[in-house]
Amino acid sequence: MLSAVTRCIGDPRVRQRLFTAAIVDVLRHQGCCGKGVSARRWACVWLCLAILPTAAWPHEWYVQPKVDMQTYYNDNLRLNAGRHSAVLGTIGDVSARLGVRSEVSGWRLTHRLRDYRYFGYSGVDSYNHLARMVSTNAFYRTETGSWNVTAIYDRDSTLSSELLDSGRVNFNIPRDTINVRPSWFSQWTPRVSVQLDGGYTTTYYSNGQIYGLRSYKVANGSMTLAYNVTERQKLTATVSGSRYMAPAYFDDKTDSYIVQAGWISHWTERTVTSASGGLLINRTQLSLFGLPLTSTQQGYVVHAKARTSSERTSWSAQFSRDVDPTSFGVLMQRDQVQAGVEHGLTPYLEASVNGLWLHSKSLRNPLETINRTLDQVELKVTWRYALHWALNGGYRWTRQDYGQAAAQSNALFVNVRYSGRKWFTSF
């Protein structure tokens, strides 16, 4: 009798039903939407939901630590066009990843802390800050499809995080970002597949309006159909829509609609190219002193990417034109070019060169002072001197143009990185 019960509980389908019944039982006693559900009961529900995807199959838990310690010199940390002073800085980056996975499903939780410290002149320590990021991811796979959900909470500072977004890195303003991204994929036939993606992002700046930064929210969704022309050629068609909301800026709302087609080609095992482009329509609604105003704009988006490699060298290049939300309360058109080359000098030593050109332009007023151009070149050498250890060193040049004002910086950096092994335990 006991052996029969053990075999019954060991059946994957029975275990999954037991977890589902536990969730229903917790909510049934006091109502799933009632205020009487205690924090302890909700904790039990979320735990069951986290374990449910892996309850039906043998699975293993794992944990993985990572540590990155960097020291650098920067002669213009805040990219000021006027007078500025050089600083020495350190970044302590510590993260840990906890997860569980089986052959068809998994769940992962990551906690990351980054401590920024600055030295060099009186008062520079006021820019010290601690950044924290917590993220979780869950996925589930079937024979013909999969779903994936990612949620991220990140609290950092404009000083260390706004270079690629708005370029306003001359202030130390706390920034909180919450991002949720669900996706679903299905292989309809051997040649045809469909993917649905969604997302919601909210970005909040503490006292940001004093410095011209606006908190905003973005909701988006897309559907992509893919057709495998051959084993190495794929044709894609995507329809997407998004809403950008900046309530602090005249109750601004912008709806964007994009229809685009693309082509992906695997020329060889080491050479891949892709290109896509399409039509963009923006419809902006705002309330100015109680008067509703509406405007419509048309444009286009384009993406092109190429990657190839040999035994010791790899090259990559890409160009894109996108429309992205920013902290200025308006959408920005971004033209971006990136290129890089990486070469293995020895089995343990490699060198790389990467370049970036980014031009941002306001869609509302092409002559606005928030329009800018960013140029960056980085040279880096990496020495992997042990199994989990690496030593990096290099030079980074950055230039940013805001209208008639321009600023540039030179930075030297050295960092030690430890990527710990994954520690597993199976159930």
Structural summary, described in words:
- The chain has 427 residues and is mostly beta strands.
- It has two domains: 1-56, no CATH class; 66-426, Porin (Beta Barrel).
- The chain is 11% helix and 62% strand.
- The protein is built from four helices and 19 strands.
- It has helices spanning 2-10, 12-30, 39-55, 158-161, and strands at 59-74, 87-102, 105-119, 129-141, 145-157, 174-187, 192-205, 216-228, 233-246, 252-266, 272-288, 291-309, 313-325, 331-344, 349-362, 372-383, 389-402, 405-419, 423-426.
- It has an 18-stranded antiparallel barrel.
- Strand 2 (87-102) and strand 3 (105-119) form a beta hairpin.
- Helix 2 packs antiparallel against helix 3 (39-55).
- The longest helix is centred in the first third of the chain and has 19 residues, at 12-30.
- The chain starts with a helix and ends with a strand.
Tell me the total number of β-strands: 19
**Helical element count?**
4
CATH topology name of the largest domain, in short, is Porin
The computed structural class is: mainly beta
Could you spell the SSE succession in H and E letters?
HHHEEEEEHEEEEEEEEEEEEEE
Distance between the termini: 23 Å
Largest sheet properties: 18 strands, antiparallel, barrel
Radius of gyration, whole Å? 25 Å
Poorly predicted tracts of residues: 1-11, 30-37
Proportion in helices: 10-25%
| Average pLDDT | 85
Shape: globular
The name of the CATH architecture of the largest domain is Beta Barrel
Strand content: over 45%
Quickly count the domains. Answer: 2
Q: Which CATH C-level class of the largest domain is it?
A: Mainly Beta
